[in-house]
Design goal:
binds NADP nicotinamide-adenine-dinucleotide phosphate, seven-stranded parallel β-sheet, alpha/beta, Rossmann fold, globular, 5 helices, single chain
Amino acid sequence: MGGNFVIAGGSKGIGLELVNQLMPIADRIDVISRSHGQLVDHEKVVRHTMDFTAPNLDFSEIPDVVHGVVYCPGTINLRSFRALKPADFVADFEVNLVGAVKFLQGCLPALKKGATEQTSSVVMFSTVAASQGLSMHASVAAAKGAVEGLTRSLAAEWAPKIRVNCIAPALTDTPLASRFFSSPENCEAMAAKYPLGRTGLPTDLASTARFLLTSESSWMTGQVLAVDGGMSTVRK
Ligand SMILES: NC(=O)c1ccc[n+]([C@@H]2O[C@H](COP(=O)([O-])OP(=O)(O)OC[C@H]3O[C@@H](n4cnc5c(N)ncnc54)[C@H](OP(=O)(O)O)[C@@H]3O)[C@@H](O)[C@H]2O)c1
């Protein structure tokens, strides 16, 4: 298939697994994160160090032509509404929404150039907590709700050249969620909450992102895909 991809947050977790899944099919993968994380050197991978919460980000080093981009940075800041300060909401918005806006504005010229023979593709990440009322999730649910709104808006604004979709995971075993997997008892208790009997693995989400990046999903835009072990729709 080929093509150039930019993965924001490809150094750990779901983004890292996506980079690994793209290696056999991509021409070049640019990875942007604050640290190298667990990303290993590879001839197709170009690393960039950047913090999406910083002002005035420079995207001049990404390729002139890009066929797909994914924004992975996110937060799990679980506290009661009473314990949350307005600054916590601002911090969650900075990483989940405003960082994504900076990233997409930086990549837009290259994404437009990538949409010649077929559409280019944008993939965002939400959470099951944006569509389900989960206590202690007010701050992240509000920020991810904004990400879902941005997804649908940009899907309309950028059609028919650029497709924009979003994935809404439930609990997935990554560095971000490591505290929920701290003991076998915790893992078992979490798994029992899911209709499919287990929590998510990075590959569950990365394979969905990969699908949304490729022409296999060429008639999909403006969608929020629940990849959540059945949590958002199934009752046992
Ligand atoms: N894991 C879950 O249970 C779960 C559940 C629901 C939704 N999600 C969503 O799924 C997405 C991926 O989550 P994940 O679990 O794979 O996260 P993760 O393990 O924390 O990985 C996030 C990636 O983003 C980078 N990153 C984080 N903050 C950044 C910043 N300010 N600037 C630049 N890079 C930054 C990290 O690298 P550096 O630290 O090196 O910068 C890392 O590469 C997130 O949007 C998350 O909200 C995850």
